Amino acid sequence: MTIASSSPPSRLPLGGAEGARTRPKTDRAKAREAGGDGRLAAVFLAPALLGFVVFLLWPTLRGIYLSFTRFNLLTPAEWVGLDNYVRMVNDPIFWDSLTVTVEYVVINIGVQTVAALAIAVLLQRLTQSAVLRGIVLTPYLMSNVVAGIVWLWMLDTQLGIGNEIIAAVGADRIPFLADETWAIPTIALINVWRHVGYTALLLFAGLQAIPNDMYEAAKVDGASEWRMFWRITMPLLRPVLAVVLIMTVIGSFQVFDTVAVTTAGGPANATNVLQYYIYGAAFGRFQFGYASAMSVALLVVLSAITFLQYRLTRAGQSDLG
Amino acid sequence: MRIRTAAALMGALALSLVSGCAQGGSAGAGGNTVTYWLWDANQLPAYQACAKAFEQQNPGLKVKITQMGWADYWTKLTASFIAGTEPDVFTDHIQKFGQFADLNVLEPLDDLGIDDSAYQEGLAANWRGQDGHRYGAPKDWDTVALFYNKKMTKEAGLTAEQLGTLSWNPEDGGTFEKAIARLTVDKNGKRGDEEGFDKNNVKVYGLATGGAGDSDGQTTWSPFAASAGWHYTDKARWGTEYQYGSKTFQSVIDWYFGLAEKGYLAPFTDYTDGANPANAQVASGKAATSFDGAWMISTYYGTKGLDVGTAVTPTGPTGKRATMMNGLADSITKNADNKAGAKKWVQYLASNECQKTVGGYGIVFPATPDGTQAAVAAYEKKGIDVSAFTEPVTDQQDSTTFSFPITDYAADVYALMRPAMQDVYANGAPVSGLTKTNDQINFVLGQ
Fold first, then answer.
1. Which residues, if any, are the signal sequence (chain B) (predicted)?
2. Are residues A261 and A150 in the same domain?
3. With an 8 Å Cβ cutoff, is B240 touching chain A?
4. Closest residue, chain B, to A247 (C-alpha)
5. ipTM more than 0.90?
6. Which secondary-structure segment (H or E) carries A29?
């Protein structure tokens, strides 16, 4: 995508630059062609650009503007300068919710990535069954809210089937979603359950791109599956894994729906993740200015994390060929 | 991947907004239609009956009623104010009144000629804003009482008379604590007041948990705090300071949530808003009693296999029983499409005629005394004795009622108190910490 939008448009498919060089043209003809291409490109780009401006650029700029105002959505916004940011820095609940969110992301992404990688490798090395691939994906077909409610019922301390089983084997009931120690790991694992299949499928697609002869050559050399995983699979999967990580980390930071339906941020703010806190400030307390300031902070955090990840994992380069 | 979910959600939201707009537009376009929103599905038939009578009396006017669940209701109402697709008339709650007044989205109803004395005491006055204007027409009221599983109380040797004359104090809990201790049974069949009771392995709790009560404690700690002489704010209405920092309040909270440590009150972890509210704990036999509001009468009495009774709240250190008496109202939105029709409809909703009709359904207590009487009779017909709910209103000698706190910044108070109360109940945080929360709240109010 980045290549398409950053390189100059060309009518020739691949290696257009060289092609043009072999057919010398007058400057006017070149200019005419470039102009024609430019117009055509503009026509093709227009819908996407319009969408980008209306749905991404404008809301982002307006959000940034609102973060410097006091705004309740129904009366005009009032400029307050840096007040919202000062309040944010001094707001212990904001920092607490940031910590809770990071805790969630670490558990969610950690478990999910390892599990998805294991599933993907097993899918590739052991079976090519499309049915199995379909089954792995099924939790992802369920809405987050539905999944959250179903798990809420299953894990209820008194009435949930999960705790009935725990009680039946003689162990103490576990307040999965009602205890401050358990709540975040539980929510993180509910989302792992829902998303692991999809993540595995993305990684599986990455694995398909690794030429099979590498494995065959390694086998001839007597390498074990374990060794092949570390020496072939992991290095060659790195760019895909990096992109998947960036996407899932961003998604994970935005956790909201599962929290909203299972714990509503409780008990005692133990699951008050940043998005939920922002939502409460905006739609519960009508403090859209402060909510915007926190959203800008989240944007900065996510941009920094994405940039770092991209750099550290060299996501833009492949070791293949 | 969650990005895609978000995109899908946004798409769905956009679609629903579009369809919502279309609905609003068509309703407004009619000109003779009054749109009306309410959240309680149980009350829908009663108000449909009122609408029918209203339409007969006002040829040409039509009432379009939309009902949606409590949580969706407020989200959608908020969204409708922003999008300009609000209903002409909606059922309003005191908890939200302050915020709507702040946002300036309500139409003054001074010209409807609402007479305060035509309704149960205090109901009409609550709906006057700080500017002195009326923003709600009284609709109904509810109080809180103790629901109990008759089979369990009988087994524990407690009579209806005993349960109806309980008293409590923050030192030893009085006869109320004794009763719920007696009703608590552990895994080995030992009762809470017996030697060798195992508080860590309780089979049936004496009292169901209704959560930490947030900022109002309506069906949890408020009957106790109020019967100890405490009130939320410095003034009955539009107070400027909350009093969660008071010694009285904190001693009540300490004692009340202390009941969970003793094993008599179900722990916080047993409460789930959606999956396991207080009535579900009683229904499943995990708790013997629960405090709940009059709006739950039909639910408790309609539970299969549950023989239920009700008792008034216990008498407190002030020598009186206390319960919140909360009243709903009908409000007209400032940007209502059909304001003239809306005013007629609200006038009718507030009339004795409509309230008697609603009362006849035996679902809720209407605000006019005649409407209340009709409801009591309707409940009686169903074999339900509702005196535990009506007595606090009629018997001023032994009972006192109080209102939901009405102040500015109600949503902020809720957002600050909710986690603070959960911290006390769920994590055993000291009640003295509530003083700091109270200071934060008063700081917000003082802005």
1. 1-24
2. yes
3. no
4. B1
5. no
6. helix A27-52
Is there a contact between B348 and B36 (Cβ–Cβ < 8 Å)? no
**B104/A159 touch (CB, cutoff 8 Å), yes or no:** no
Q: Report the topology of domain B29-142+326-386.
A: D-Maltodextrin-Binding Protein; domain 2 (3.40.190)
Q: Give the global pTM.
A: 0.83
d(CA B84, CA B336): 9
Looking at CA atoms only, how far is residue A171 from chain B in angstroms? 11
Low-confidence ranges of chain A (pLDDT < 70): 1-35, 315, 320-321
Is pLDDT at B67 greater than 90 in this prediction? yes
Do B29-142+326-386 and B144-324+409-445 agree at the fold level? yes
pLDDT tens-digit readout, B153-198: 999 999 999 999 999 999 999 999 999 999 999 999 999 999 999 9
Q: Where are the alpha helices (DSSP H) in A155-269?
A: 161-168, 180-208, 212-220, 225-228, 234-253, 257-262
Select the residue of B82, B267, B281 nearest A73 (Cβ to Cβ): B82
Interface probe for B, chosen from A204, A279, A285 (most Cβ of B below 10 Å), is: A285
Nearest to A266 among B1, B75, B419 (CB): B419
Residue B3: pLDDT above 50?
A: no
Q: Which residues of B touch A285 (CB under 8 A)?
A: 411-412, 415
**What digits encode the pLDDT tens for the residues A254-302?**
999 999 999 999 899 999 999 999 999 998 888 999 999 999 999 999 9
The whole-angstrom separation of Cα B416 and Cα B420 is: 7
Q: In which domain, by residue range, is A25 found?
A: 2-65
3-class secondary-structure state, position A126: helix
